[in-house]
Amino acid sequence: MSFDDSLWHSTAGDSFEPRPPLPGDIDVDVAIVGAGYTGLWTAYYLHSIDPSMRIAIIEREIAGFGASGRNGGWCSALFPPASSGIARRHGADAAVAMRRAMHESIVEVGRVAEAEGLDIHYARGGTIQLARNPAQLARAREIVEDERSVTGDVEGLELLSKEQAEDHARGTRVLGGTYTPHCAAIHPLRLVRGLASRVEARGVSLFERTTATEIKPGALLTDHGTVRAEIVVRATEGYTPSLRGQRRRVIPLYSLMIATEPLSAEAWDQIGLRRRQTFADLRHMRIYGQRTADDRLAFGGRGAPYHFASRTRPSFDRNRRVHSGLREVLADLFPVVADFEVTHEWGGALAIPRDWHASAGLDRQRGFAWAGGYVGDGVATTNLAGRTLAQLITSQENGLTQLPWVGHSSRSWEPEPLRWLGVNSGRLLMSSADRSEARTGRPAKRAKAFARLMGY
Ligand SMILES: Cc1cc2nc3c(=O)[nH]c(=O)nc-3n(C[C@H](O)[C@H](O)[C@H](O)COP(=O)(O)OP(=O)(O)OC[C@H]3O[C@@H](n4cnc5c(N)ncnc54)[C@H](O)[C@@H]3O)c2cc1C
Question: 38 CB under 6 A from ligand 1?
Answer without folding.
Answer: yes
